[in-house]
Amino acid sequence: MHLHFDPNRCYSCKTCQLICSYHHTGSFWPEKSSIEAYRNQQNGYVKWSVDNTCDGCSGESEVLCVKHCVYGALTIGAKQPQPEGHGKKLTAETDTGGSCLAGKILRVDLTENKIWTEDSLFYAQKTLGGRGINSMIMVNEIPAGTRWSDPQNLLCFGAGLLNGTMAPGACRVDISSISVFSGGKGSANVGGFFGPEMKYAGYDNIIISGKAPKPVYLYIRDDVVEIRDAEGLWGQTVFSSEAWLRETLGDPQVKTALIGPSGENRVRGSAVMIDGSRAAGGSGVGCVMGDKNLKAIAVRGTGKVGLADPARFMKAIDKCSAQCAREPNVVPMRKSLTNFYSDPDFEGWERIMVVRNGQDEYWEKEKRIELMNQQTGVPSMRKGMRACYLCPTGCSSYMEIDDGRFQGTRGEGFWVNTIMGHAARFDLSDPEAVVHAWLLTNEMGLDTDYVSSGLAWIFECYENGYITKDDTGGVELNWGDGDALVAMIKKLAYRQGIGDLLADGMLEAAKTIGHNSEYLLAHMKGQPSIEPFRVPKGWGLAVATSPICGRHLRGSTQGSHRFGPRPRPGKFGATEYEGQPEGVYWQARTKELEDNMGICNYVGTWSGGNYLTPGNFAELISSALGIEVTEKELMDHYACVGRNLEKAFNTLFTDLERKDDLPPERFRKEPVKSGPNKGFIADEEKYHTMLTEFYQLWEWDAESGLQTRDGLERLGLKNVADKLAAQGKLVQKKA
Ligand code: SF4
Ligand code: SF4
Ligand code: SF4
């Protein structure tokens, strides 16, 4: 038998590699696969090969790699010679390992140059994994009064519980730390290949403490963990850092989490970039990494991830696969979610676009068409699609600009956030400029939302005459000017001129700029935000109450009928207030579970009724971890533990209160000016009504929003309740 591989159809999800290892070993062990798959995320180069350890899936009822390649890149052809398997011993290894947990947390103290491990089971039993473990460690260990730049602050990487298994879309890793904006809980969630590689190396979480005296990077290859000098790496952009590490380590399969010039320069809105192409953007986690003098983590794992009950788990996988195959959104998403926006009448245009830094929430149709038309717009620059590890949706665009002033620009990434942020917010409909600015933002290692919201704000300050050309180094900040945006991104990343002021935080910059600039800055609890509040109310409530401040993935209900779960919890009426708290409460809990398992919520509950559900999660967790959980326990206990840990961290480390859970003042004062939603506003009284209901659903005090002893003790978080009580920030009983 010969496997025929079509590189043009391959999304580089590596599912074929993993299922082959399962065939050979009964566990998930890429190193023991007959298949090797590799993609260079920067230039699109793809390599796929099968060696002579392939036995044609002897003993199986189907050819597994072909069956599980949902993109149709593998077919069966005539027999041909295959390369040697380099001495692999496949059939002798059948120990499943007993659990999907790697079992260890890697601890690294950069000040003391110390490395050690501890068991992860205790934390997994309490929180499942991923962000849950990060949050619990932060609440338990970070001393009161610690600020983001103190050595006692922790930078925590949490691979999801199901990372490394065959669970669809189980690739996400959580990066948590003290937020550089709010001083409370910070977290950013990202896909790619890094999280599963952590698991194959043997670690569920990596916790970094202290500060290195000079720039370093962390090298991990299974049990070998070394803090290495980053000379030669420091100062490089994201793309060249990624290439440097692969080349220096002599391993194209190494997975990386690193910062660009922006993080090195402690620009507050810096991201940690995964595999050189995907950003963990929120909360300034890249700034914290730079402040710790940690340029990168390079990880390579050659071990396996096991299962508690392989047969039951694979049955659950078959069910998940069948559901995803029935999902009508799958096919369009594989051609990019953003393609929906090629239709200028797509309802998303009327729901989530904030224009000219919040002056309006309606973008004219001719601009939508100029940006997104298939012939000359953004879609014409899309040269291929990519998937994160094991993802059946493959929503990521690989872009190249062939001509014009940005010729030669290439890389992965164009999302709905790009349209919301780098386009509508700047009134910028020039497709090349938007794509170039977005990829430049990634290359600098900046958080895209920080750039979109922060720089759009400085454009409006310029429009109002609060700053002039003298302040911007001669750059005219006019709406729709892509070159001005590009110039400002570089200034920000390298702290040049006014970029130095903006790098220390937009809220701080507003204090220097004065006038009513602070009012014009859209931020939640200090973090600049690109989100809408006046039109989609469930979306707005989730953003306003997000524990990580001003981001939509912590409970936003979809603004479109096409997406989201079916039946939809609460009442669907994207622009109404009624019924939204219930929907946000449901979506926030499923997101909590997804982040703890490491499953992308585009494959989970956010994208369509036939994607994965909490019922699927219960079956996957029970069979993979070996701890029996029901859907109800997941939703009413585990999801609530995670959210309450973050809420408690915010209460312990900040003075945030109910008023901080309201949309930014501008959105409560200025109605939408034009379009079908003209006159819409974030009505303060109605937002208060939603807040009260929302707090009660979580068992928090209806008035203050503080947590209650009853609620926390029901979740087994008595120690957290005691900490809050010691600060006088706990309500005894459910209000
Ligand atoms: S699309 Fe995924 S499963 Fe198919 S050949 Fe490529 S890497 Fe393998
Ligand atoms: S046919 Fe079976 S053994 Fe051969 S590469 Fe595919 S999954 Fe592996
Ligand atoms: S849906 Fe998109 S972002 Fe999510 S895992 Fe798949 S490719 Fe990555």
Number of helices: 27
Q: Largest sheet at a glance? A: 6 strands, mixed
Helix content: 25-40%
Which second-level CATH architecture of the largest domain applies? Orthogonal Bundle
Features:
single chain, 735 residues, alpha+beta, Alpha-Beta Plaits, Aldehyde Ferredoxin Oxidoreductase,  A, domain 1, Aldehyde Ferredoxin Oxidoreductase Protein, subunit A, domain 2, 6-stranded mixed sheet, 21 strands, globular, binds iron/sulfur cluster, Ald_Fedxn_OxRdtase_N, oxidoreductase activity, acting on the aldehyde or oxo group of donors, iron-sulfur protein as acceptor, metal ion binding, Ald_Fedxn_OxRdtase_dom2
3D architecture notes:
It contains 27 helices and 21 strands. A six-stranded mixed β-sheet has the order 6-5-10-7-8-9. A six-stranded mixed β-sheet has the order 12-11-16-13-14-15, sandwiched between helices. Strands 17-18-19 form a three-stranded antiparallel β-sheet, covered by helices on one side. A hairpin with a 3-residue loop joins strand 14 (272-274) and strand 15. It folds into four domains: 2-77, 2-Layer Sandwich (Alpha-Beta Plaits), CATH 3.30.70; 104-300, Aldehyde ferredoxin oxidoreductase, N-terminal domain (Aldehyde Ferredoxin Oxidoreductase,  A, domain 1); 328-528, Aldehyde Ferredoxin Oxidoreductase Protein, subunit A, domain 2 (Orthogonal Bundle); 569-726, Aldehyde Ferredoxin Oxidoreductase Protein, subunit A, domain 3, CATH 1.10.599. With 735 residues, it is of the alpha+beta class. Bound molecules: iron/sulfur cluster (3 copies). One iron/sulfur cluster binds at residues 10-16, 37, 48, 69, 71, 73-74.
